[in-house]
Write a structure and sequence with these properties.
The longest helix has 62 residues. α2 packs antiparallel against α4. The chain is 64% helix and 14% strand. It contains four helices and six strands. Strands 1-4-5 form a three-stranded antiparallel beta sheet. It has a three-stranded mixed beta sheet with strand order 2-6-3, with no helix packed on it.
Length: 204
């Protein structure tokens, strides 16, 4: 009977010890939890010790792609502008070449008009037919002048190999050496380009 009471008392003490141990462990856990919560709050409040956020890699790649596309568009626009300017220049050059070719073919016709009119006497120039020919010649020269065709000045001018073609030399007491004394065939320019050089005689 005494032993039975002893066993009960021993069991009771062991249970009390285990209960105290559990209570102690629970308190320690609560302390650790409270300390962790406090540390977390300090980190959030301070913010100075936090590591800087890393830039978004996807955002960087997107910006790089946009910049690459913008550069590509700008290059293509510049190339197109250069192509447009080259095309306009080539078109203008082709037009000038075509115009000069047509004008060059018309010059003998103009020469014949001038030769024919130069042979007429003052009385013959009053004839209606002669007047009609003169009006046609005048209209033709007006139209050519309107597109930039002009005769080259020759007689009395200093000889210029860029404009004149010397076919003979003569002596003159009135004109200085190197001066164009006579125009044998009239020359013409289309804008600043020579279509046909003037054939001249030059003072030696």
């Amino acid at each position: 009977m005494r032993n039975k009471h002893k066993n009960k008392a021993g069991n009771k003490m062991e249970k009390e010890k285990e209960l105290e141990k559990e209570i102690k462990e629970e308190k320690e856990k609560e302390k650790e939890s409270a300390a962790a919560t406090e540390a977390s709050a300090e980190d959030e409040a301070g913010g100075g010790d936090k590591e800087p956020e890393k830039p978004d890699a996807r955002s960087d790649k997107k910006d790089e792609k946009i910049k690459e596309l913008e550069d590509k568009v700008l290059r293509q626009m510049a190339e197109f502008e250069n192509f447009r300017k080259r095309s306009e220049k080539e078109k203008s050059q082709m037009y000038d070449m075509g115009a000069k070719s047509v004008i060059e073919k018309m010059l003998p016709v103009i020469d014949n008009f001038e030769r024919g009119l130069a042979t007429l006497t003052q009385e013959q120039k009053k004839d209606p037919f002669a007047e009609g020919i003169d009006k046609v010649y005048t209209q033709l020269m007006t139209e050519l002048s309107g597109i930039g065709v002009t005769p080259i000045a020759a007689e009395g001018e200093p000889f210029d190999p860029e404009l004149h073609n010397a076919v003979s030399q003569i002596e003159s007491d009135e004109l200085a050496s190197g001066t164009v004394a006579q125009e044998l065939l009239k020359g013409y320019k289309y804008h600043d380009s020579v279509v046909r050089h003037s054939m001249v005689s030059v003072v030696s």
